[in-house]
Amino acid sequence: MYDRPDFLDLPQRTPKPRTSGLTHVLDKGLTVSALDALLEQAAEYIDVLKVGWGIAYVDPHIRERAILCRQAGVTLCLGGTLFEVCAAQGRIPELARWAHRVGIEAVEVSNGLARMSSDDKRTLVRELSGEFIVFAETGTKDGDAPVTDHLWVDEMEADLEAGARHVIAEGRESGTVGLYHSDGTPRVDLAEAIAARIPLGKIIFEAPTKSHQTWFVRKFGSEVGLGNIGTDEVLALETLRLGLRADTALLAEPASVGARS
Amino acid sequence: MYDRPDFLDLPQRTPKPRTSGLTHVLDKGLTVSALDALLEQAAEYIDVLKVGWGIAYVDPHIRERAILCRQAGVTLCLGGTLFEVCAAQGRIPELARWAHRVGIEAVEVSNGLARMSSDDKRTLVRELSGEFIVFAETGTKDGDAPVTDHLWVDEMEADLEAGARHVIAEGRESGTVGLYHSDGTPRVDLAEAIAARIPLGKIIFEAPTKSHQTWFVRKFGSEVGLGNIGTDEVLALETLRLGLRADTALLAEPASVGARS
Amino acid sequence: MYDRPDFLDLPQRTPKPRTSGLTHVLDKGLTVSALDALLEQAAEYIDVLKVGWGIAYVDPHIRERAILCRQAGVTLCLGGTLFEVCAAQGRIPELARWAHRVGIEAVEVSNGLARMSSDDKRTLVRELSGEFIVFAETGTKDGDAPVTDHLWVDEMEADLEAGARHVIAEGRESGTVGLYHSDGTPRVDLAEAIAARIPLGKIIFEAPTKSHQTWFVRKFGSEVGLGNIGTDEVLALETLRLGLRADTALLAEPASVGARS
Predict the structure, then answer these.
(1) Distance CA C83, CA C48 (A)
(2) Engineering a disulfide at A72: which of A43, B38, B54, B197 sits with its beta carbon 3.0 to 4.6 angstroms away?
(3) Each residue of B113-138: pLDDT tens digit?
């Protein structure tokens, strides 16, 4: 049995199954044996595993992926770009049937390619949330697209009303669009506007790099929902949440250097 | 059995064994169990696995690597720097004997260190192509070296005539030399000059990052030969080729948002 | 049996157990099966495996990690931030008891958060070196902290006198603080000042990227001690040390292109 250390004063973390403080991991095509090892190590720290963009469509092991996630209590989610390509080709029913057949429980409904209206998107959130757990993403993948705080938040509220379990704020794998300026720094006003109107537990901020994750943990605390976490960064993120990495360590308490006794 | 989805309209991809549309992967020393898992997952999408630079020389598992690749129908190739160090030390015969002994089928003949003349290089291409599959690379690893389109293409033509199976356009792991400007953007004129005179199926463009890969897929289509692909990016590249990643999705067809029914 | 090639003239490398020329690897939470495969492949090239910052505290497999390292002749070391958080909370005795219980042999005593005096740090080096192998790090993680050559070297000398086995020059995972300017280039004067007064075999320079590693190998030779090496870069670093990667290949010898015969 794992003899977990407990000799430090650290922030509390909600245990799984969690409805807030989610860690949403981006799987870019991990091999099945690597996924198996990851889940054995870190399932406790992973809430959602998203198979990025259209990778599920070319992955010969998508069924095994679904089985491993289900056994580990991790929600397996399809990527938004696959959803959008299916929507553009009129193949959402085929996508849904296939996803059920291979054992996928969740889908991301996004509009990163900006090919549908907000109404179309909301309709699809409503329809799909009858059959799947729906994560609804806001924001486009186009770095030149205007980002207007209140339009983002309006869309998020509408998506939650339409049945989305959580909303995702787009940051891509690069962290240079949507939630971030092109230089990678967060859009502070946007993050604050979202947090002001959407319950924090319902939001997943895409935060692909350590500096992004650090910013959100410092801003909203250990229990902030974070997405697009690399499969090799799961334990690292947990240490950031708990103040066990230099970037977030000893933020609050006064200095009191411990002597040996 | 793998029940491959087939409900989307996507570009055709030539099945293996391919003579064009090659994916050439850079192996920086994957463990044997990780390579085994990768090949089980993605052998269908990998044509060549190059053991980078001199890694084969220090890898205790080079024989196992060769066996796994052979079983999976993937061509295992030595790195060009190992070839060049052997050439500079007068040890090409020893290299060839050792490569045969451990089961390696292919070598890269390159001149990245700019230590030999084009004639010397062509002579070695001719000699080695009697015993090995030869990939001949053009371009130096020196970012300050001049890049002249017609000299590159002349060298590529000569290497193909001398027996090289494919030619590789140097981009390094960084994507900042040879085929690329120092800021990482492609040398458009050079890429076009190569494609104008060399059959597209014979060319492997080194394209180490997603933005490089995207540029080439958009420029030359799904079946462009791409090299220096990371071992963890194989499925991701296949989605780029197929238009299942945002960067290349829905490039051509008109918007037609699918309703649910 | 592994039939190691030996047909090239390469720099000599001290075999394990080494007291100089160390490779100190940063483990950011590798799964146990990936660690097992890595050690099977590359234990010969790894002297120390540091479980980064506080990852050991959240890793359910820390015991297995310790067992695998011990079997492979690799020293498992805790991260400095975990030490510093324990020091700040007055929990060094608890840390030591737990580390013994799970089988950890080495600790890093650092002051990256700048929360203790040099005297406090030296006292802890002395106390802990009675029970553990101690790696003492110099430098803070704050990019704005002044870096004074002679203060760094004074601290390193004092730490070695207090019982540290090796001293580590801070560079972080980013390579932009301590030993490096904020643009990632090395502080040449600092590196030279350290090497002038501390025996080279006692120093581990944190060198997280290929360009950092290249700089140190070119500056101090194949047997320089290097730290914060990625778990997927171990074979790659060994080729850099041996001149089997373009960056360090053929530095010394005159050009003599080998003909085939």
Answers:
(1) 17
(2) A43
(3) 999 998 999 999 999 999 999 999 99
